[in-house]
Amino acid sequence: MTDATRLDADETDLLAAVRAGDPARFALLTERHRRELHVHCYRMLANYEDAQDMTQETFLRAWHKRESFRGHAAVRTWLYRIATNACLDFLKKPTNRAPAPSALPDADSEVMYLQPYPDQMLPEDPQESVVARETIELAFIVAVQHLPPRQRAVFILRDVLGWPASTAADALELTVASVTSALQRARVTMREQLPDRRLDWRSPATHELSSDERGAVRSYIRAHERNDLDGLMSLLRDDLRFAMLPDPGTVTTTAGDAVDGWISGGLFQRGHDDWRGITTTVNRMPAAALYLRAPGDSQYRLFAIAVLHIVDGKIAELTGFDATDKPWLDLAPTL
């Protein structure tokens, strides 16, 4: 069966489910798109849990608006349209997240609602994840948050998903001219936020970690397990960018100052000096899941996950996240 035939069959099957008012069949036909829609919502919102909520909202809206599906567009396109507008509606509402997405004036602004994305939740179809690494990395997700919501939607639909301007305009109820103008402004902002990164998101990008990345993660974990401060310092670039979310304060610092700051904050002191770690990946980036054993405890308990951006074998960016109470990361709670 060709892809075109499969698409025609999908539309025909969904139309039949709509006309029959068959919720079970409707759910079966739309559910297959859950993972890619979840990634789409995550790119829009930078928060795994919010993306989960908006993905579920997408399916609810799809059922309530099922009569609007007439088979003129692919099922996938119809669902993306609903998901995009669900996210835009979410971004209009006051939330406890800070700062608001529209209040991010520069690259150093905090995105404290940022959460890591577990790789096991990425789409399994290689065609759906061909650009996943560069468009799911933390730097990209943070950069997208600097766009106003409508620009953000246009940019993702046009430059990430590769939609024609007319299709994006129809999804967002804008003119083609408005979409073109919004995309031009969004591209300028993205170049400012990602000056050293490739901006052709539709070109294939490798998903595999390099040997430098794998080696740096192993060395980072080993330094923690041995309380090897010199070894840890040697892994860090002197222009390290460090953040520990959701705490404010992304800083660019020297390796020595970074380690001194961690020590003064209690790291590698009694109670925070008995570590184990495992190598993992989130956002298709190398990461270390760190487990801490407190005095008197018999087990190492999941403490944090450090997501690393490696350049020439050294850690250029380190974003730490509290890993407790996040079962969706699919990490063992104890070692």
From TrEMBL:
Question: So where does this one cross the membrane?
Answer: none
Q: Where is the RNA polymerase sigma factor 70 region 4 type domain?
A: 140-189
Q: Which intervals hold domain RNA polymerase sigma-70 region?
A: 30-93
Q: Does the keyword Transferase apply?
A: yes
MF terms (GO), sorted A to Z: DNA-directed RNA polymerase activity
InterPro entries, per this entry? Answer: NTF2-like_dom_sf (IPR032710), RNA_pol_sigma-70-like (IPR039425), RNA_pol_sigma-70_dom (IPR014284), RNA_pol_sigma-G_actinobac (IPR014305), RNA_pol_sigma70_r2 (IPR007627), RNA_pol_sigma70_r4_t2 (IPR013249), RNA_pol_sigma_r2 (IPR013325), RNA_pol_sigma_r3/r4-like (IPR013324)
Q: Does the keyword Cell membrane apply?
A: no
Name of the top EC class for this enzyme = transferase
Q: What is its EC number?
A: 2.7.7.6
Q: Which UniProt keywords apply?
A: Nucleotidyltransferase, Sigma factor, Transcription, Transcription regulation, Transferase
Provide the assembly information.
Answer: Interacts transiently with the RNA polymerase catalytic core formed by RpoA, RpoB, RpoC and RpoZ (2 alpha, 1 beta, 1 beta' and 1 omega subunit) to form the RNA polymerase holoenzyme that can initiate transcription.
Identify its protein family. Belongs to the sigma-70 factor family. ECF subfamily.
Which protein is depicted? RNA polymerase subunit sigma-70
Lineage of the species this protein comes from: Bacteria, Bacillati, Actinomycetota, Actinomycetes, Micromonosporales
